[in-house]
Amino acid sequence: MKLPARVKIVDVGPRDGLQNEKQPVSAEIKIGLVHRLQEAGLKEIEVTSFVSPKWVPQMADNAEVMHGIRRAPGVRYSVLTPNMKGLEAAMAAPREEWPDEIVVFGAASEAFSQRNINCSIAESIERFRPVVAAARENGIYVRGAMSCTVGCPYEGEIAPERVGMLAGLMKDIGVQHIGVADTIGVGTPVKVQRAIEATLAHFDIDDISGHYHDTYGQALGNTLASLELGVWQFDTSSAGLGGCPYAKGATGNVATEDVVYMLQGMGIDTGIDLDRLIDAGVYISDALGREPNSRASKAIRTRRAG
Ligand code: HMG
Ligand code: MG
Q1: Rounded CA gap, 194 and 258, in Å?
Q2: What would be the CATH architecture of the domain defined by 100-254?
Q3: Is pLDDT larger for residue 21 or for residue 107?
């Protein structure tokens, strides 16, 4: 089996992780998490979302967080922008505070699209079109995220053809990179591979990433199955934080710590210092008053204490 020699991890903890937290988390803590992640060697961090604060109150401090982060050379900072209002808000700051990358997020399921962004799949594409064009004109890279590529909390199983259709629509409007998300973590390796193969009809392997929530404990298996197809970019969440507010019962993304431990064990380069990463996960978990949701973190901290 030929596997990629290196993997790029995008830590989405500050966004996907914290968006679902009911308790307030201060901008200062969020900024502290971003700093610890970059110090651990993360080269891309999904910092926040420019979405409606009525829908996702936890991300209401988006501008404050973007203003407060100290940028490290070679690190890319991304944010979610579902519409022009979101992009304009992200670009209202001085240029040096703009995101390097924005994410437009659609769904392979109609019902999820309605619940998450209040419009149909077709309408979402029309909303994204000017966002993608304006971002690219301003030198901001555009990533697309496809939710519910294997299963939907409202519609059940999702056929790969629907993923292919959405990927094609995203490509047509100029999206440069696409994330295949298992929003509710129901996917298993072969189903995830089918979703990736459907995406491959429209995007190159180098422009595809995997985004797996770990609700059913399948995310590491799904990551390995993706590596087998040549995928080498993954979204993961420090301390396994998170979930989607519009996907009831869905837990966080696979923990960055668990993925890095697996990849290091396979001799795949991530550029990440696992010890420092574990400390970043402890930092945010302490702030939330809980243990990191990562088996590797727990095992390594037990060994350290020993
Ligand atoms: P809408 O209500 O249809 O929008 O929401 P609207 O254009 O009719 O505007 C309604 C109000 O929202 C107005 O305010 C707008 O100004 C305001 P009002 O006049 O009532 O005071 N508004 C905004 N405010 C700030 N920033 C904006 C913005 N847009 C409108 N960008 C909308 C549509 C998309 C805005 C809404 O549905 C929304 O914000 N949804 C949030 C969805 C979200 O953040 N979900 C979680 C992230 S996606 C995810 O987690 C999945 C992912 O991880 C992959 C995976 O795992 O599947 C990426
Ligand atoms: Mg997600």
Answers
A1: 24
A2: Alpha-Beta Barrel (3.20)
A3: 107
